[in-house]
C-alpha cells in the first residue's frame, strides 16, 4: 500500500517537473522578481485609499432647534434623506442659532441650522467675512427665509414697534438668537430693552402663555412650516404684526430681506390672512465644520435641494438652496455642487458605490506612478534569475579548466579521470535544471560548452577548439 502511494507521488513529481521544464514562463521566478514590486504597489495603494482620501463617516450629528420648530422638522427630513444612503444623522435639539454656533465651534456637532445675523459680526455689519465666532466653519448654502413673526393679542393695541413699551413680550431664550435680533429692531426704533417686560420662555410654553392672556405678545423667527406658526396664524384673537417699514429695516440691517405674506395664503376659503403682511426675514443657513468630509458636503447639499427646492410662501421654485445670502464662506465642495451639479458618478450610482469609484481614482493614480517605473525593473530581474541558473555552472566549468591548467602537460593524465567525473556530475545536474522554453538556448549552449571542456580534458582539442594529435 505504501509502495503504491510512493510510486504515485513519484509519478506526480516527475509530471510537475516536466511541466516546469517545458513551460514558456517560470512562474516561480516571475513571482520572486515581481513580489517586492507588488508588495510596494499594494502598500502604496492602501496608503492612498485610507490616508489620502479616507472614507466618509457613517454617522453625523446635527443641531436643530426647539420643540415644534421648523428646524426640528427639517432635521427629521434630513435624517430621512441621509438614511437612504446608510448614513445615521443624530438630531440634537437646541434653543436655536446662537447655541448651534457654539456647539459647532466646540465640535459637539458636525452640522447645524444657523440664522443669518446670529454671529456678533453679522449683527454689527452684515459682513461677509467670518468673525471669531465663525472661524473653522463653512456654509453649505442658504435654505429658506425665516420671517420675524411678532404675534400679539388684539387687545394689546400694538400697531407700531414703539407701542411695545410697557408690554409683556416673550423673546425666547438667548440661545435662539431671536433676542439679539429683536433688540436690534428695538434699538432702530429708539426703544431701550428695559422699557419692555421681556420673557425668555421657549416657543411652546410661550404660546401657551399668549393664548392664556398672561403675556401680550411673542416673537418667533422661523419658516412658515413650523406647526406653531401655522396654528397662531389661524387662532382668533391673535394678530400678526405688519412691518410696514420692512424696506427701511433691510437697509439698516443688511442681513435682513423684505418678504410678503400674501392675503389668503393660509386658507383661501376663509381668507386667512385677510390682508398682505410685510415681514422682515433673516435667512436660515446650513453650517458645518470645515473638516466635514467633502463627500458628505455634496450629499447634504443634494438633500437640501430635495427638501428646500420647492416653491413656498416666500420663495420661488429652485430659489433655495443657494450659495447666496450667507455671511459664512461657502465650502468649496458646496460651491462646486451649486455650479456644476452632483459629481458625474453620483448621477447614476448610489452614494457609497460612487464614492468608492471616486476614491479608486486616487489609487489608480498611485498605481500608475509606481507601475510605470517599476515595469522597467521587473523584466531584467526576471531574466537575471532565469539565466543565473545556467550561468552559475560556468563557474564550475572554469574550475575544471583551472585544475587542468594547474596540472601542466605532464600531470594531466593523473587528474584526467577525476576531472571527467566532475564534468559528468556537472552534466547530470545540468540535465535537471528547470528553465522556461524561451531560455532553452542558454541551456543547450551550456551543454555544448560542457562537451568542449570534456574534450579538452581528454586531450583531443586545445583551448581554442583545435584538434590535437593523439598520443600513445
Automatic annotation (TrEMBL):
Q: Which SUPFAM superfamilies match?
A: Periplasmic binding protein-like II
UniProt keywords, alphabetically:
Membrane, Transmembrane, Transmembrane helix
Which Pfam families does the record cross-reference, listed alphabetically?
NMT1_3
Give the superkingdom in one word. Bacteria
| Signal sequence residues | none
Q: Which InterPro entries match?
A: TRAP_TAXI
Membrane-spanning parts: 30-52, 360-384
* PANTHER family assigned to the protein according to its UniProt record, in alphabetical order: SLL1037 PROTEIN
Task: Tell me the NCBIfam families matching this sequence.
Answer: TRAP_TAXI
Name by which UniProt lists this protein: TAXI family TRAP transporter solute-binding subunit
Per the UniProt record, the source organism is Massilia hydrophila
What phylogenetic lineage does the species belong to?
Bacteria, Pseudomonadati, Pseudomonadota, Betaproteobacteria, Burkholderiales
Amino acid at each position: 500500500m505504501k509502495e503504491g502511494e510512493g510510486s504515485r507521488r513519484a509519478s506526480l513529481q516527475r509530471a510537475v517537473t516536466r511541466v516546469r521544464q517545458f513551460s514558456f514562463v517560470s512562474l516561480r521566478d516571475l513571482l520572486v522578481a515581481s513580489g517586492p514590486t507588488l508588495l510596494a504597489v499594494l502598500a502604496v495603494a492602501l496608503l492612498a485609499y485610507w490616508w489620502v482620501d479616507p472614507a466618509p463617516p457613517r454617522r453625523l450629528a446635527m443641531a436643530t432647534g426647539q420643540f415644534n420648530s421648523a428646524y426640528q422638522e427639517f432635521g427629521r427630513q434630513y435624517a430621512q434623506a441621509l438614511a437612504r444612503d446608510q448614513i445615521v444623522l443624530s438630531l440634537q435639539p437646541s434653543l436655536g442659532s446662537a447655541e448651534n454656533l457654539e456647539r459647532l465651534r466646540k465640535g459637539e456637532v458636525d452640522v447645524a441650522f444657523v440664522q443669518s445675523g446670529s454671529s456678533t459680526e453679522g449683527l454689527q455689519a452684515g459682513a461677509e467675512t467670518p468673525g471669531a465666532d465663525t472661524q473653522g466653519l463653512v456654509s453649505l448654502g442658504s435654505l429658506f427665509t425665516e420671517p420675524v413673526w411678532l404675534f400679539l393679542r388684539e387687545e394689546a393695541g400694538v400697531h407700531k414697534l414703539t407701542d411695545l413699551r410697557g408690554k409683556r413680550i416673550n423673546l425666547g431664550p438667548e440661545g435662539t438668537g431671536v433676542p439679539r435680533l429683536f433688540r436690534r429692531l428695538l434699538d432702530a426704533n429708539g426703544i431701550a430693552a428695559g422699557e419692555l417686560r421681556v420673557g425668555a420662555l421657549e416657543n411652546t410654553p410661550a404660546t401657551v402663555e399668549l393664548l392664556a392672556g398672561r403675556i401680550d405678545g411673542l416673537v418667533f423667527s422661523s419658516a412658515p412650516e413650523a406647526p406653531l406658526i401655522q396654528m397662531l396664524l389661524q387662532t382668533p384673537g391673535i394678530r400678526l404684526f405688519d412691518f410696514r417699514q420692512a424696506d427701511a429695516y433691510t437697509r439698516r440691517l443688511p442681513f435682513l430681506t423684505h418678504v410678503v405674506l400674501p392675503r389668503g395664503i393660509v386658507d383661501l376659503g376663509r381668507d386667512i390672512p385677510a390682508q398682505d403682511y410685510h415681514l422682515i426675514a433673516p435667512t436660515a443657513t446650513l453650517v458645518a465644520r470645515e473638516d466635514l468630509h467633502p463627500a458628505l458636503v455634496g450629499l447634504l447639499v443634494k438633500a437640501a435641494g430635495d427638501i428646500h427646492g420647492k416653491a413656498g410662501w416666500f420663495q420661488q421654485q429652485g430659489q433655495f438652496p443657494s450659495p447666496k445670502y450667507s455671511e459664512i464662506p461657502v465650502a468649496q465642495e458646496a460651491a462646486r455642487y451649486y455650479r456644476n451639479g452632483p459629481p458625474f458618478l453620483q448621477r447614476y450610482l448610489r452614494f457609497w458605490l460612487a464614492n468608492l469609484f471616486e476614491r479608486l481614482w486616487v489609487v489608480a493614480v498611485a498605481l500608475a506612478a509606481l507601475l510605470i517605473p517599476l515595469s522597467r525593473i521587473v523584466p531584467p530581474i526576471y531574466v537575471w534569475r532565469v539565466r543565473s541558473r545556467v550561468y552559475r555552472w560556468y563557474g564550475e566549468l572554469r574550475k575544471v579548466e583551472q585544475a587542468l591548467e594547474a596540472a601542466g602537460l605532464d600531470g594531466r593524465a593523473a587528474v584526467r579521470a577525476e576531472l571527467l567525473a566532475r564534468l559528468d556530475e556537472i552534466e547530470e545536474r545540468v540535465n535537471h535544471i528547470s528553465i522556461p522554453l524561451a531560455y532553452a538556448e542558454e541551456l543547450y549552449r551550456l551543454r555544448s560548452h560542457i562537451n568542449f571542456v570534456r574534450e579538452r580534458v581528454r586531450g583531443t582539442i586545445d583551448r581554442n577548439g583545435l584538434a590535437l594529435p593523439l598520443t600513445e
